[in-house]
Amino acid sequence: MDKFRMMFQFLQSNQESFMNGICGIMALASAQMYSAFEFSCPCMPEYNYTYGIGLLLIPPIWFFLLGFVLNNNVSVLAEEWKRPTGKRTKDPTILRYMFCSITQRSLIAPAVWVSVTLMDGKSFLCAFSINLDIDRFGNSSVIQGMSETEKLKFLARIPCKDLFEDKELREAASRYIKCISQACGWMVLLMMTFTAFLIRAIRPCFTQAAFLKTKYWSHYIDIERKMFDETCKEHAKSFAKVCIQQYFENISGEMRSFHRHHSKHDSDNEDEDAWKSDEEKLLGIRAQDDMNKVLWNWHTCKPPLALRKEHEDGEKEGEMNGNINGEVNGFVKSHTHDVEKKEWAVYYSKV
Question: Which PANTHER family does this chain map to (predicted)?
Answer without folding.
Answer: CALCIUM HOMEOSTASIS MODULATOR PROTEIN, CALCIUM HOMEOSTASIS MODULATOR PROTEIN 1
